[in-house]
Amino acid sequence: MSMEKPLNILFMSYEELKEDSVAQTKRLAEFLGFPFSMEEEKTGVVNQIIDFCSFNSVNPHQLISHFEIKFYKENLNPDLSKIPSLRLFSTHLSYPILAGSIKRSNCRIVYITRNPFDVVVSLWHFIRGVHNLPDWPLEDCFEMFCRGEESYEELKEDPMSQTKRLPKFLGFPFSMEEEKTGV
């Protein structure tokens, strides 16, 4: 893994966040350059932030836009400089496949890893939600994931063919009209 600017990257796991939310929230705030003061810690600000951002209070997708959905679904070449600062994005891309320009930039990257089983479930929901495909059994998604039938390298090498594979596999291939209009 290339880390041109290692001080701009904070690695943590989802499991660490669940296990000790207070310590990880403080670690994140310090990394972003906004450490909590003693007064804030004593008055419970850290716990208030954790409560506000918990799954019980809000869906995280309402707080942070998915990079590939919000910006690239409607425009393959969005002008991100027009988005007001401070910019905060979420992505399903893993660190190794982020563009070199992102890794070399001065942006801060918080990289949260997850248990592979959680990744499969998230991928399943993500694919079903973005592409509005017919119901796809989780078991089928899991089997494809474990067999490595859909790899990023294949998708990057031939995005058009690979994008057609899933609907075809599900028995709902794109029509010629859908292919022509770029569905």
Automatic annotation (TrEMBL):
Span of domain Sulfotransferase: 2-58, 71-151
Top-level class of the enzyme under EC nomenclature: transferase
Keywords: Transferase
Entry EC number(s): 2.8.2.-
Taxonomy, superkingdom: Eukaryota
Gene3D superfamilies given in the database record: P-loop containing nucleotide triphosphate hydrolases (3.40.50.300)
InterPro entries on file: P-loop_NTPase (IPR027417), Sulfotransferase_dom (IPR000863)
A molecular function (GO) term: sulfotransferase activity
Keyword Protease set for record: no
UniProt-listed Pfam families: Sulfotransfer_1
Family indicated by similarity: Belongs to the sulfotransferase 1 family.
Name of the protein in question: Sulfotransferase
Organism per entry: Gossypium laxum
Lineage summary: Eukaryota, Viridiplantae, Streptophyta, Embryophyta, Tracheophyta
